[in-house]
């Protein structure tokens, strides 16, 4: 929950902030509290979109971690 608050503070500075993530993995879940819980998992994109003045979202369809068969299964689970 508070990790997004920290990111908001960083975005309010003159620092050049680059965020990298994979919405199919919940590697960015650091808190199970109620603060910002609507932004967990795929909800993170809503948080990013609300900050379009500070962030530019760039989506890529290239995968360097998994074979094509695993990507196909993941695409069937998360078609968006």
Please characterize this protein's 3D structure.
With 80 residues, this protein is mostly helical. 34% of the residues lie in helices and 0% in strands. It has three helices and no strands. It has helices at 2-11, 44-50, 68-77. The longest helix has 10 residues, at 2-11. It is globular. The two termini are 25 Å apart.
Give the gist of this structure.
The chain is mainly alpha-helical. It has three helices and no strands.
Number of strands: 0
**The biggest beta sheet, please?**
none
Strand pairing plus helix content: what structural class? mainly alpha
The helix/strand series, from N terminus to C terminus, equals: HHH
Q: Average pLDDT, to the nearest integer?
A: 81
In helices, the fraction of residues equals 25-40%
Strand % is under 5%
Q: Note the gap between the termini.
A: 25 Å
Number of separate helices = 3
Which structural traits does this protein have?
80 residues; mainly alpha; globular; 0% strand; 3 helices
């Amino acid at each position: 929950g508070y990790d997004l608050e920290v990111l908001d503070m960083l975005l309010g500075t003159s620092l050049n902030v680059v965020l990298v993530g994979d919405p199919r993995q919940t590697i960015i879940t650091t808190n199970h509290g109620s603060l910002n819980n609507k932004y967990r998992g795929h909800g993170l994109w809503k948080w990013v979109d609300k900050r379009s003045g500070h962030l530019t979202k760039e989506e890529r369809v290239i995968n360097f971690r998994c074979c094509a068969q695993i990507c196909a299964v993941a695409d069937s689970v998360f078609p968006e």
